[in-house]
Predict the 3D structure of the following.
Amino acid sequence: MSGKCALYTAGCEEIPGAIVKTEMRLHEVYNVKKGVWHTHTLCEDAEVLIIENQNTGDENSPKYPLSKDMHNRILELEKE
């Protein structure tokens, strides 16, 4: 909606693969497929609209903690 946001995806949620960064563009729709690990970073003044399926919740959205390597990769991608 406004500001800058980067979307990070990395394969399936059980074992995320290589992290890919997508710079999101204003007024575009991004569809993250079921089972794809994802997160995002926003600038301080960013506003985004996230729409999920009605049945999306904690019981069917497993959490996967970032490993140190994943965290470092996201930091590297942010610098680019």
About this structure: The radius of gyration is 13 Å. Helices lie at 68-79. The chain has a mean pLDDT of 86.
